[in-house]
Design brief:
The protein is of the alpha+beta class and 446 residues long. The protein has helices spanning 2-7, 10-24, 27-35, 57-60, 88-91, 236-249, 269-273, 286-289, 309-317, 346-349, 366-372, 387-393, 412-422, and strands at 39-49, 66-79, 83-86, 94-100, 106-115, 120-125, 146-151, 164-175, 190-193, 205-208, 213-220, 231-235, 255-256, 259-261, 276-281, 297-301, 304-305, 324-331, 334-341, 343-344, 353-355, 359-363, 380-384, 400-404, 407-408, 428-434, 437-443. The chain folds into four domains: 37-125, Trypsin-like serine proteases (Thrombin, subunit H); 146-248, Trypsin-like serine proteases (Thrombin, subunit H, Beta Barrel); 255-344, PDZ domain (Pdz3 Domain); 347-443, Roll (Pdz3 Domain). Strands 21, 22, 23, 24, 25, 26 and 27 form a seven-stranded antiparallel β-sheet that branches. The longest helix is centred in the first third of the chain and has 15 residues, at 10-24.
Length: 446
């Protein structure tokens, strides 16, 4: 009876409330509080060219008509001088980017670089002394441990810039998502979580119970557009490596190993072979110098087992030119280790030849052929070109120009000379390889 009366006193009620408050403040609460000040909203304005969808649109949509589209995502501050990591699909095509901090301040952001392949972009705002997100690691994540996704779903539609928090567990690690037709990025070796990731969360941090960023929220699998408990985050180690390259070089240097492996048509072949079959090795390339030959079976690379081509893509995505990659191969029933010194992609190192204004070409070499998986052993590969040139010519990046009118093309300089000769006359016919198929395009050269 005395204890009951004591609990009914002001001092007893205060002690009871304090005990309840202590139980409310869980590890997840502390973790979210530690990272939330560094989470920002990323507001994007872009212009999209409207294309006619119905016969009536041909009459009512002017040619070349563009509309202004607004996009929204999240990001987190990694440097007190205003460096922010977010998703590339958030910033893609942006004409202007405004970052809103947790305290409601707006900043015009500059895009330092973006990488569609890994879906990472880096922004900078003109501010100093900003709170930064503590960085952890994803390599020791445990299946079933608690994680928290932080972001700004629907932005100001929810009333203020305070980031939203959703909790869940690590459902799986090392997840590979088969590439889709509208998926420019390569989503491999991802962290899977059932923490709700909704529109606007993209680019925000996934954190552990210590309040450390372990991933960048990136994508969901859903047939409704909303979260159904299948969310994926980019490992923080990959995001930081890509962000560092974007800050230093403005682009990501891709690793070239100099070998091809069996593709998606042989997803289950590893069960029979015990690994992934090497289908082609570039003569004189890194793999060839390490003694790897076509027909060998790749068992592991970088201490990771290699079962499918997506495992191999994941390994290549997380190494840089100059790295030494330890692999294990099997040939003739015997296993042996090998060390491959990785190089930069041949197309990145190759001399670029400019034609037609903003079209850049590189000469097809055996190394370029292996890198791009080309049928043609000669020609000029379109390395880069502008949207207007693409529409005017019907050519695309990645096409290999093989012939212009009656002139055979053996390299980039042949292409420049052929276009110069044909300028101002009748339309030129350009024969090219695209996706392993042959085609042609007719257009005028000014």
């Amino acid at each position: 009876m005395r204890s009951a009366l004591a609990a009914d006193t002001p001092q007893g009620r205060a002690q009871a409330n304090q005990a309840i408050t202590t139980t409310r403040r869980t590890a997840l609460v502390d973790a979210a509080a530690r990272v939330a000040p560094a989470v920002v909203s990323v507001n994007v304005v872009k212009r999209e060219r409207a294309t006619p969808q119905t016969p009536f649109d041909f009459f009512f949509v002017p040619r070349g008509y563009e509309r202004v589209v607004q996009g929204l995502g999240s990001g987190f501050i990694v440097s007190g001088d205003g460096v922010i990591i977010t998703n590339q699909h958030v910033t893609d095509g942006a004409d202007s980017i405004v970052v809103t901090t947790r305290d409601g301040r707006d900043f015009n952001a500059r895009l330092l670089g973006e990488d569609p392949l890994t879906d990472i972009a880096v922004l900078r705002i003109n501010a100093w002394g900003l709170p930064t997100a503590p960085i952890g690691k994803s390599s020791d994540l445990m299946i079933g441990e608690w994680v928290v996704a932080i972001g700004n779903p629907y932005g100001f539609l929810l009333g203020n810039p305070e980031p939203s928090v959703s909790a869940g567990v690590v459902s799986a690690v090392g997840r590979n998502l088969l590439p889709g037709g509208d998926q420019p990025g390569v989503y491999v070796h991802m962290i899977q979580t059932d923490a709700a990731i909704n529109p606007g969360n993209s680019g925000g941090p996934l954190i552990n119970v210590l309040g450390q960023v372990v991933g960048v929220n990136s994508s969901i699998l859903s047939n409704t557009g909303g979260s159904i408990g299948l969310g994926f985050a980019i490992p923080i180690e990959r995001a930081l490596r890509v962000a560092d390259e974007l800050r230093r070089f403005g682009a990501v240097r891709r690793a070239w190993v100099g070998l091809d492996v069996a593709g998606s048509e042989e997803l289950n072949a590893w069960k029979r072979a015990g690994g992934l079959r090497v289908t082609r090795v570039a003569a004189g390339g890194p793999a060839a110098r390490a003694g790897i030959t076509a027909g060998d079976v790749l068992i592991s690379a970088g201490s990771q087992p290699v079962r499918t081509f997506l495992d191999w893509e994941s390994i290549k995505l997380d190494i840089s030119p100059g790295d030494s990659l330890r692999v294990e191969v099997q040939a003739g029933g015997r296993r042996r280790p090998a060390s491959v010194v990785v190089e930069e992609l041949p197309t990145s190192r190759a001399e670029k030849v400019a034609v037609l204004g903003d079209m850049e070409l590189v000469t097809v070499t055996p190394e370029v052929q292996q890198e791009r998986g080309l049928r043609s052993a000669r020609g000029a590969l379109i390395y880069r070109m502008g949207q207007d040139t693409q529409e005017a010519t019907g050519l695309q990046e990645g096409d290999v120009i093989l012939q212009i009118n009656r002139q055979t093309i053996n390299g980039a300089e042949d292409t420049r000379r052929a276009f110069r000769t044909a300028a101002g006359r009748t339309p030129v016919r350009v024969y090219f390889e695209r996706g392993g198929q042959m085609g042609f395009a007719d257009f005028y050269v000014q």
